[in-house]
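agent> fetching stored inputs for the iron/sulfur cluster docking request
agent> found them:
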Amino acid sequence: MHGRLDRVDVQAKGGSAVRVLDYKMMDAARLRNKLKEAGEDVQLACYAYVYEAEEAAFISIEKDKVIAVAPPQDVAELAQANIARLLEVFAQMRSGAALPAHGAEEACQYCEMRGLCRKSEWNER
Ligand code: SF4
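agent> prediction call returned; pasting tokens
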């Protein structure tokens, strides 16, 4: 896994605690909702895994408000569960598992990628 994070804080003065942060131009309530169910949002969990971070949060920036929104679960456990799931899914894909399109119909009806994911063909099976 590789990429570039918005921000990584490392505790000063000999400490080793790491916190990963991702800035979002999105309101805090929506971000809280994204993080409510463990495993639904994988971004912070991936960042936490790469940096072995104990803390992770989205930073909501909206108009004049800046609010940190952290996952309600234990970040280290979230990171481990996420990477275990990714490894399992990639192993399944490498061994030829089918990849049916699971988009919600409200989104699919306007989606320009419909021809690529072949949602219509999957639904006929
Ligand atoms: S049409 Fe395909 S790519 Fe687009 S939202 Fe639906 S499932 Fe996803």
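agent> quick read of the result: The pocket of iron/sulfur cluster is lined by residues 101, 103, 107-108, 111, 113-114, 117, 119 (CB under 6 Å).
agent> awaiting further instructions
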